[in-house]
Please model this.
Amino acid sequence: MLFALVLASGATAQRVAPCSGGPIVHVTVAPVMPASFNPDSVQAGADCLSWQMFIYLNWRASPARAGAPSSALAATFGRPGDTAPTVWQSYPTADAVFDPAGAAVRTRSGGVLELHDIHQTGGAWLTAQSGLPTYYEVRVNPDAAEFITQNGLTTAAGQAACARGKGGFNLPHGSSSLAGVARDTDCAGAPHTYGLDVGAIEIKAAWVVLPADGSLDHRYKIAKARVTDPATGKASLQTVGLAGLHIVRKLPGASQMLWATFEQIDTVPDQLAPARAVLPVNAPAEAAPRGFTYYNPACVPATDAYGCVPNTPPGAACRPGSTTVPAGCHATSAPMQITRLTPITPEVNDATADAWAAMRRQLPAGGRDSVFNYYRLIDVQWPAQEVPPVAPRARIPLLAADMIPTPDTRYVANTTMETFVQQSRTCLDCHANAAVANPALVKARALSARTIRGLLRGGQGAPFASDYAFVFSVRTRR
Model:
């Protein structure tokens, strides 16, 4: 029998109804974190687990314990205008874990975010119809943060030593209290429990600047942020809305991680239906977008920097084929036309409709006021079977065992974060190549496939693997 954990400030694990694919139950609007996953799960089970994680992670955070939910009542879930940090927002940023001194300089009081990173993987950026870029941040939960800091993984040398260690480079999967679940270990192979014992979680969030008049605040999880204009380098205080959210989690039954991704419903239309949003049935009141964030149905090619061609990567507005901005060319201010290339499946839409229905049943006033009425599951990808832990001295690429869905079925992509590679690769296609930091490349943003090929041609051999997590090669400072 698979159980879930209820984690609250000072609370202990309790047995509650699971949402892990076997058996499948409906989501509940409560801070319930499923403890394990059934790799034999059908789509509905993976969707259910993903929505339950989303609810847990977006619960108000405990003021006393980072990474844990507060004892707040469900009535506060998604209250419009609420800028209180959620569970995932109480996680440290990846920058802070790897460079605490530098992060301390950038951190401001009062819960104000510092947003300056506008680049997706590969260097692309995404500009909304407002002419303002999308900002990104990456956070890791206490389990992952403690694994990094306690094993000395903030340095390239420490990461290489871990990969050579008896325990290998294995992020924690948590749930040590469950029968039959092997204990997590440190890099030397000694049993160890990290953080809240829920397994390593990596969050990537996409934020969009909202209108100053507050007219869209009720449709978004909002935050106050100092955003840096990429064209001028100047920062200003803005209200930002959560446009997209990746949840990547390692847990029993998903040693290759479970990859779930969500978007706010106003982001983009489907490529096959560009004039309207295709939403799940029984969508809440006011569910239809008030204009798309990244698409204008009335776009005029003669005056549009991208000629109204959907999903054109940045740089083309200034110089064809370029991903850099030449001096005097402010391409980051040119609105983009983005469409979803892989339609959301009926099964996934059913899961979102179920979550919305749960909010209507469990929240005051039928849940009409919760901003999370305006979020939807895009898809989830999971391993079709468990695989052994990453072996000591394992090198990239790691095993990319069968994943569900497979690329010949559909690609899993978030239009706010994989905008220009929506149908070119799956989650694991990239992350099987996640490596430890190479001392010669510590300042690089990531180890791209091209860089890896270059290393191999240069006779240096493939780097050690970092358990499907790119955060190590991207964030290491020294």
